[in-house]
Structures are given as structure tokens and as C-alpha cells.
């Protein structure tokens, strides 16, 4: 509403529907009326029969009077100094002014936003019930349908506007702060004032923080330029801009690193202290790599048998195999190959590099099998990432609680159709049954 000084309010006396136009000069009132008449007659299907106004010079010009006379529009004028004769529009003017003033003061907006506040006030009053319409809104009385109110927001509140992906690169912020100043005229979107560029933009992808308002600490911020077509007609300016906020992003990242930088523990062994390079950020992979230097994983059963924790891990593995009925001890076949088995040892670490547990896994030497002779096909059921993402999205929408667990014997659910025999695991060969082997019921 660039450099406008006046606003002109039209009201339909039957439906109380109001339209507001903004003028740079009062002489523009005649042009506004012609546009208003063309619009309302086309929308409603009814003709403008009479116009009631005061005796202001903008309504008493020769052009205005000749136009109404040619169109057959009756002129109804008030007596001088008798505004009560046109009480409907005079009361509406007062209501709009008081409402706009309240909205400006509520969010401490500069007076340069008066036109935006007036336009928003008229927009809201058209969607508020009126006593003269018996609890019906002017919008419903004029259009015949109930207005939607879900999109209404607090005037002047702080909001975050999405920056289109084509106007930013990966390191830039996805949104920037603006001030909500009204609703689109010809567009289904919000009118937003950008304090940085001092321009009005239109957007529909907005997140509103209605309890917060912009702090107008810099006096220069009061120099507001809000472009809008004259007389409130046409399409509002929709210029978008690409913000260069790399420096701001870098400052934010640096501040976050200083706030969340963890206290790193020093790892000591009996003879050597490892250099942790203080005052330097290190990733968790570096910490885990250094921890692995002082953690020894057995290479053979003989080494693992010397440690009680590894023996417990192997016993737990065998207990789980027996519990799932994975195999059965039988005599050694002479017409079938017997596959060897091997212990695999792995130390499981926490995120901070500490030892979580020692894990021992008994695996079959499947590389000795030949496809088509010892087996027909192999299949390992695993969860697809698409399924996991869908489950997480559904849980987020339904506000479900997600729990993660480790099924350490999940691999033992594969039922075998072929005859597969394996040796007894090293260190756990049953006495007096050294010649026997295990026949697998499930995949190992």
C-alpha cells in the first residue's frame, strides 16, 4: 500500500459486506467506484441501484454525478454536518479504525502498517457474525456459503517462512523470520513483511508463532515500504529473494559446538597413555578406533578359553542354539559331507567407546558347500529401509512409542529342507561321542 494516505470503504446495506480501497488522493475515489460497481454486479448478479454518501468533494465531482445519472444510479446524500444519516458506513469506519489501531498497538508495529491493519480488519469483520443479519456473517449473506476460519492468525505475530529449495543451497536455512501483516488479495496465501529486505512477500508455507512479536529496536526499521497496487486491485507483488546466510549458519554451528562439546575421557593402560589431542574435536569413529587399540579380540578358541568372559559368551551362544532346537546329535554319515564350524569373537562397544559386552558366534564354514549339491538356494529375510521409514512415519503421526530391541537368535528361524551336518564346536565336544556330528534343523 505504497504511499497511500486514505482508504475508501464500500458497504452493501443488505448483507453488510464491506470492501476497502486505498487511495493516494481523494480524486481517485471515482475510479474506485467504477471498479467496485463492475466487480459487485458481476459477482452478485444484481445492479447497483443507489449510493448513499456524504457531501465530500470526491463524491460530488461532475464526473461522478454524470456517471451515476447515465447508469440510473440514485444518489442519496446526507445533510451537511449530519453523519448519523449514513450511520451504517460511519459506524463501520469507526469500528475498522479502532480495530486496526488495537492490532498495531498489540504487537507494537509502526504506524506505517496502518493500511495492512485496516485491510485485515475489514477481512475479519466480513467473517464475524452481525446482529443485523441474525447471527450470520456478511460473507455468508453475500456469497451464500460459510467462510473458512481455520487460516486466521494473529495480526503482527512472528512467523517462519519456508525458503523455496530453488532459492537456497544445502547449507542455508530452510526458513527465515517475517511478520504476518494480512491475507492475500487475489492469492490463497499470507502477506508477510520481511524486516531484512523491508518488502512484502506472499507465501502459503508459513509456521506461525502467535505469542511472539518482532522487536523493533532499530529506529531505521520504521522506514517501511509496502508495495501494493493502487486502489487495492490487481495481483499483489510476489517477489521472492534468495538470502545469503552462510555466515549466520556458520556462527550458529560454532555456537552449538561450543555448547554441546562433550568432556572426553582419557584412555590409560598399564604402560602407555594415548594422546587425545585436547582442544580439538574428534569424531566417535576416532574414539572407537583408539579404543580398539587397547581391546584385544581373540583370534582362536585357545586364546578365548583363557578369559572367563569369553567362555561365558560361548556358553550363552550354545545355550541359545540348544534352546531353539537348531541341531541334533547323530552318527557321522558316510555319504554326506560334514561342514566344519568356527568360533568368531567380537567386542561390542557403547557410543562412548566403553565395552558393552563380549559376543561369541558359532558359524558354519559354508564356503565348502556346493550349490545344487549341498543346497538349492539361500535366503535371508531382512527388513527393507522403506518399511522402517513407513513404520516410523506412522508412529510419529499416531504418537506411538517406538522401542528397539536386539533379537540375537533371529538367524535361527531359517528352516532347512536339505541334510546338512556340522562338526561339534571346538572345546565343547561331548565325551564318548567324539565321532558324532550335528544334523542341522535350522540354518546356522
UniProtKB/TrEMBL annotation:
The keyword Nuclease applies. SUPFAM superfamilies: DNA/RNA polymerases (SSF56672), Ribonuclease H-like (SSF53098). Keywords: DNA integration, DNA recombination, DNA-directed DNA polymerase, Endonuclease, Hydrolase, Magnesium, Metal-binding, Multifunctional enzyme, Nuclease, Nucleotidyltransferase, RNA-directed DNA polymerase, Transferase. Signal peptide: none annotated. PROSITE patterns: INTEGRASE (PS50994). It comes from the Eukaryota. The keyword Hydrolase applies. Residues 1-146 form the Integrase catalytic domain. GO terms for molecular function: DNA-directed DNA polymerase activity; endonuclease activity; hydrolase activity; metal ion binding; nucleic acid binding; RNA-directed DNA polymerase activity. GO terms for biological process: DNA integration; DNA recombination. InterPro entries: DNA/RNA_pol_sf, Integrase_cat-core, Retrotran_Ty1/copia-like, RNaseH-like_sf, RNaseH_sf, RVT_2, SH3_retrovirus. This is Integrase catalytic domain-containing protein.
Amino acid at each position: 500500500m505504497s504511499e497511500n494516505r486514505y482508504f475508501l470503504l464500500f458497504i452493501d446495506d443488505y448483507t453488510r459486506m464491506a470492501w476497502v480501497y486505498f487511495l493516494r488522493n481523494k480524486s481517485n475515489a471515482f475510479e474506485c467506484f467504477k471498479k467496485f460497481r463492475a466487480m459487485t454486479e458481476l459477482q452478485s448478479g444484481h445492479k447497483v441501484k443507489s449510493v448513499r454518501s456524504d457531501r465530500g468533494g470526491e463524491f460530488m465531482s461532475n464526473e461522478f454525478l454524470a456517471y451515476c445519472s447515465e447508469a440510473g444510479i440514485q444518489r442519496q446524500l446526507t445533510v451537511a454536518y449530519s453523519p448519523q444519516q449514513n450511520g451504517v458506513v460511519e459506524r463501520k469506519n469507526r469500528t475498522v479504525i479502532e480495530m486496526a489501531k488495537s492490532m498495531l498497538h498489540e504487537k507494537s508495529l509502526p504506524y506505517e502498517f496502518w493500511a495492512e491493519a485496516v485491510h485485515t480488519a475489514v477481512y475479519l469483520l466480513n467473517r464475524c457474525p452481525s446482529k443485523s443479519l441474525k447471527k450470520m456473517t456478511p460473507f455468508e449473506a453475500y456469497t451464500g456459503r460459510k467462510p473458512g476460519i481455520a487460516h486466521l492468525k494473529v495480526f503482527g505475530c512472528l512467523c517462519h517462512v519456508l525458503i523455496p529449495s530453488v532459492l537456497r543451497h544445502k547449507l542455508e536455512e530452510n526458513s527465515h523470520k517475517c511478520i504476518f501483516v494480512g491475507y492475500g488479495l487475489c492469492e490463497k496465501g499470507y502477506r508477510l513483511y520481511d524486516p531484512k529486505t523491508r518488502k512484502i512477500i506472499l507465501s502459503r508455507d508459513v509456521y506461525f508463532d502467535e505469542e511472539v512479536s518482532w522487536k523493533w529496536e532499530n529506529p531505521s526499521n520504521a522506514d517501511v515500504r509496502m508495495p501494493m497496487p493502487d486502489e487495492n486491485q490487481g495481483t499483489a507483488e510476489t517477489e521472492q529473494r534468495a538470502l545469503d546466510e552462510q555466515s549466520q549458519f556458520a556462527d550458529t554451528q560454532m555456537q552449538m559446538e561450543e555448547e554441546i562439546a562433550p568432556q572426553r575421557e582419557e584412555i590409560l593402560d598399564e604402560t602407555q597413555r594415548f594422546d587425545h589431542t585436547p582442544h580439538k574435536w574428534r569424531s566417535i569413529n576416532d574414539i572407537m578406533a583408539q579404543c580398539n587399540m587397547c581391546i584385544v579380540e581373540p583370534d582362536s578358541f585357545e586364546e578365548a578359553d583363557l578369559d572367563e568372559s569369553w567362555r561365558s559368551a560361548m556358553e550363552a551362544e550354545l545355550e541359545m542354539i540348544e534352546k531353539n532346537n537348531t541341531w541334533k546329535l547323530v552318527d557321522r554319515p558316510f555319504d554326506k559331507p560334514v561342514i566344519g564350524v568356527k568360533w568368531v569373537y567380537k567386542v561390542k562397544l557403547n557410543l562412548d567407546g566403553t565395552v558393552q559386552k563380549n559376543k561369541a558366534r558359532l558359524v558354519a564354514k559354508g564356503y565348502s558347500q556346493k550349490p545344487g549339491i549341498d543346497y538349492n538356494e539361500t535366503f535371508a529375510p531382512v527388513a527393507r529401509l522403506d518399511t522402517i521409514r513407513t513404520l516410523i512415519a506412522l508412529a510419529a503421526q499416531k504418537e506411538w512409542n517406538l522401542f528397539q530391541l536386539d533379537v540375537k537368535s533371529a538367524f535361527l528361524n531359517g528352516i532347512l529342507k536339505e541334510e546338512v551336518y556340522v562338526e561339534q564346536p571346538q572345546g565343547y565336544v561331548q565325551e564318548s561321542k567324539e565321532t558324532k556330528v550335528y544334523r542341522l534343523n535350522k540354518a546356522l
